[in-house]
Amino acid sequence: MNKEKVIFAFFIVLALTLNFGFFIGDLTDPAHHNVFEFFAALVVSLICTVIKFGDRTHLGALMLATSLVVDLQLIVAAGIWGYAEHISGTGMDPSTMSSIISLSGGALLANIISVVLLVVETALLRR
Amino acid sequence: MNNVIYLFLRRLKTPLITMIVVYSISILGFVLVPGQDDQGNVYHMDFFHAVYFVSFMGSTIGFGEIPYAFTAAQRMWTLFCIYATVISWLYGIGTALALLQEPIFGRMLRRRSFTSTVKKMNEPFYLICGYGVTGRVVVRQLVKRDVRVVVLDIEPDRIDELEMDDLSISVPALCADASLPDLLDAAGLQHEKCIGVMALTNDDHVNLSIAIASKLLSPDRMVISRTESDITTSNLHSFGTDLVVDPFRTYAQYLSLAAHEPYMHLVYDWIHNPFHRPLSSVYQRTKGRWIICGHGRFGRALYRAFDEGEVDLTVVDVDAVSIEDIPHQVTGVGTEASTLLEAGVMDAVGIVAGTPNDADNLSIIMTARELNPKILTVVRQNIHENSLVFKNSRADFVMEQGRIIANRVLAHLKSPLVPIFIEEMQNRYDDVWAHTLINRMSSVVGQNELDCWAFVVGEEETPALIEASQQGIELKLSLFFKDPHDRKRNLHAFPLMLRRGELVDMLPGELDIIQPGDEILVCGLNKANKRMQWTVNNYNVLHYILTGNDANNNLLSRFLLKYF
């Protein structure tokens, strides 16, 4: 067992699970989507990105790319959230909530690809 | 070449993760710790304000407590966060700075910029491996002729030296092991503008691997290599190295020429050496007994070269076994008078101090001169730093490896016709012929450096001549030697050799007719070379030289000439 591999896989899978947990629920209902879970998903995704730095293989490059997509999607979602709550003056409305959730849905897809790549890499290693 | 970026990212992994963790804990803390608003109600900071506050706190800008004055609990958390974020910043910046200072990082950056400079070269260039005494002389001479070069050397000191030498054009240089093919590749081994590779390092194996790599990747390109052993020499020749220079053998031949045919030796010397010997330095008393001290690589090469001529040889060496089968031999270093007397220094014409020890060599010639003031002295210089002493040793010949190789390489670069000329001269003519030639050379260049250059009559090198010959004008060799400023004057140069297919004409007459495809070797002052380039490249100049008229060879003037 390789400790480094465990940490690596742990963060990648955690990023997916947190993202999924936040995404699941009614698209427009803020009560179904916890802000802390969103925060955790974003932080874990950032950590994932840094972990993937410096791998020169083709697979490594793909994994870094998926992580960057996740970061981008979640940061935009966070920006929209902040704008809706504090700047727009109208507070959170269903349409804003739905756009935040759909962005996190995109991030979820990228996270799934990342996990698939992780599995592929492991499978290749076994052979 | 993203090595640098990858290295940077890899090293900064831990500091970056630390920073993300510290920031997220701080932000989370501010969201969780209860605060109090201006009306005294309990409130929880939202993520937006928490991120805002931690951002300016972490960078120690500090805009104050917002949106409301903090409670004691919030202040305590702030206190913790300030130290945590500052430390994580220091850690990150410290790691980045340490990385920048690491030698490997500098090396990577240098190699990266070197590779991109070489890649951008758009003029023909030579790749020179080894910037020792030889490399330095070759680079300097090439740069003087405005030829681009790229240098590789394994010693950082030598690369520093190169940067200190003020060369008139920039020379990309890298400190690297030239025996590694990927480094050679970075230095332009596969570059289409690389016209020649020179392996001038002091390690035969490295030279060999450079030559092999170059011949494998591009078989037609010129490769010049130096060598120090006969095995390497034959190995290098076996795969078609264009020029292999063995300093010992080259110098031995040079010396034996001096002993046998002094004027031919002078011709050779003038063509090869930028600082040529004066005419008066011809040695008349060269036939007789020669003493060779040291029977190492140089001594053996010398013995072989001298043996062909009618000279008596006495070999002096410490190692009695190595000189067993030589007829006249004396055991000893040669630094003490008794050994030299035994070797017959009193009636010898010349002595060669050829041991691998500089102090011994100097001592040998000084002792020999004391015993026999008229003796000809040849001394081998092993270490370049001893130049000052050797220059003042008043020896007749100083044999310094580096310079010999450099002169030989440069002669080859001037034109591949030079070695052919020397060979033909030795095969076909005698010393009297050489004497007249050297007098002619002397009257043309005087005390200045004798330069050699060659033309191949053809579209590429002499477009004006081709145009003229297409118009049916008969071209004589003499037109090369007329001054484009005033055709009544001659340039300080004369033809050495004309090669037409198999036919080699030595010292061709000025009235010979030239044909496309002829190769002409010319010697003279470097200034004459530049003038000559005018004549052969510019049709108007050629026209002036042929007819004496300053023709305006444009459409309008041709039209006017025709009708008025």
How would you portray this structure in words?
The complex is a heterodimer of chains A (127) and B (564). Chain A has one domain (3-126). In chain A, 80% of the residues lie in helices and 0% in strands. Chain A has 4 helices and no strands. Chain A has helices at 3-23, 35-51, 58-87, 94-126. The longest helix of chain A is centred in the last third of the chain and has 33 residues, at 94-126. With 564 residues, chain B is an alpha/beta fold. Chain B folds into 4 domains: 3-101, Helix Hairpins (Orthogonal Bundle), CATH 1.10.287.70; 121-245, Rossmann fold (3-Layer(aba) Sandwich); 281-400, Rossmann fold (3-Layer(aba) Sandwich); 448-560, 2-Layer Sandwich (Alpha-Beta Plaits), CATH 3.30.70. In chain B, the strands form 5 sheets. In chain B, strands 5-4-3-6-7-8 form a 6-stranded parallel sheet, sandwiched between helices. In chain B, helix 5 (133-144) runs parallel beside helix 16. Classes of the chains: A mainly alpha (127), B alpha/beta (564). The A-B interface holds A 35-36, 39, 43, 46-47, 50-51, 53-54, 56, 78, 81-82, 85-86 and B 2, 6-7, 9-10, 12-13, 16-17, 20-21, 24, 27-28, 31, 46-48. Chain A: This is DUF6394 family protein. Chain A: It comes from Neptuniibacter pectenicola. Chain A: Keywords: Membrane, Transmembrane, Transmembrane helix.
